[in-house]
Specification:
Layout: H1 3-15, H2 18-25, H3 29-43, E1 48-51, E2 54-57, H4 59-85, E3 91-97, H5 99-104, H6 106-116, E4 120-126, H7 129-137, E5 143-147, E6 155-163, E7 165-169, H8 182-185, E8 190-194, H9 199-207, E9 219-224, H10 227-235, E10 241-244, H11 245-254, E11 258-260, E12 267-274, H12 281-292
Parallel strand pairs: 3-4, 3-5, 8-9
Antiparallel strand pairs: 1-2, 5-12, 6-12, 7-10, 7-11
């Protein structure tokens, strides 16, 4: 069994499609099929069932997939350690960040890091706060950046920036010209939010009881997967939202959104890393740059 065979198996298994797996690995379909067939023949097992024109993992294949991914992860970790021995002239850095951080705060830092260490390949995964913390916990990202603290014994966190939340509406909305009374007005209007698990939504829902509002009483007309989609929907008159001022800034300047005079708490952006996993020199330097530069 070779590492290449494992990589091929994982690529095909995750997609349950030989052609797509081959394409993603830059291999021919015949070479990919041959690698799978060699594994099955050598150990006299069946990894996939052929159902019509599709392939589906067998129970054996599902069990083997977890082990194969673990071996590949260990091989990648070993390669990273060797890369560290060469200093910061080569290597990789995997980052994960929630949408606001990834789109409006982190790019400048990544750019300056890349100027200093052009040999380090930086990748960035974007998701909500829950997904980002999960990626770091599983070792699929070296460092994570989210809005708000994470309650986890396995993750070390450090504040790196402050962010202001604003309640915004379209210019034609009732609240564009008056200050609403939360306990009375909030349940009577439509709202647009990100999905549950997003940092911004979680923080807003946490402060609602102090305003005399039960989050379950809000009329949520839309749940959208990105800050940009939320902003555009509110601009179109779909309802009110609470959003980072970083996200709303250009629309507020253009007059397509209006800020409502409601006191909202500031929040903090946090960097996170796993307490026990090996932190590469590339990740250590990025952590130092972000944390030391914002303390």
């Amino acid at each position: 069994m070779t590492l290449e065979q494992l990589r091929i198996f994982v690529a095909v298994a995750e997609r349950e499609h030989v052609t797509q797996g081959a394409r993603d690995l830059n291999l021919t379909q015949s070479a990919t099929s041959a690698a799978i067939a060699a594994l099955e023949a050598r150990y006299a097992i069946k990894l996939f069932d052929r159902v019509g024109r599709r392939i589906v993992l067998t129970e054996t294949g599902r069990i083997f997939l977890a082990e194969a991914k673990a071996v590949i992860a260990r091989a990648a970790a070993a390669e990273t350690v060797l890369g560290d021995l060469a200093g910061l002239t080569r290597g990789s850095l995997g980052l994960a960040a929630s949408q606001t951080v990834a789109n409006y705060w982190l790019p400048r830092i990544i750019h300056h890091y890349h100027l200093r260490y052009p040999g380090i390949a930086v990748t960035l995964a974007i998701g909500n706060t829950e997904r980002v913390s999960g990626l770091v916990q599983r070792g699929e990202a070296d460092l994570g950046f989210v809005e708000g603290e994470i309650d986890s014994v396995t993750l070390a966190t450090h504040p790196v920036a402050d962010d202001e939340l604003v309640l915004v509406v379209a210019p034609g909305h009732d609240w564009a010209g008056r200050r609403p009374e939360p306990s009375h007005d909030f349940p009577r209007k439509r709202w647009v939010f990100r999905e549950r698990g997003s940092g911004t939504r979680s923080i807003f829902e946490a402060v609602l009881p102090g305003m005399g509002v039960d989050a379950r009483d809000l009329a949520i007309s839309l749940e959208l997967p990105s800050n940009g989609a939320v902003r555009a929907a509110v601009e179109a008159g779909a309802g009110a939202t609470v959003i980072s001022k970083l996200v709303a800034e250009s629309s507020l300047r253009a007059g397509t959104l209006v800020s409502v005079d409601i006191a909202l708490p500031k929040r903090r952006f946090f960097a996170m890393r796993h307490r026990e996993r090996y932190l590469t020199r590339a990740a250590q330097e990025f952590w130092r740059t972000v944390v030391d530069g914002n303390t």
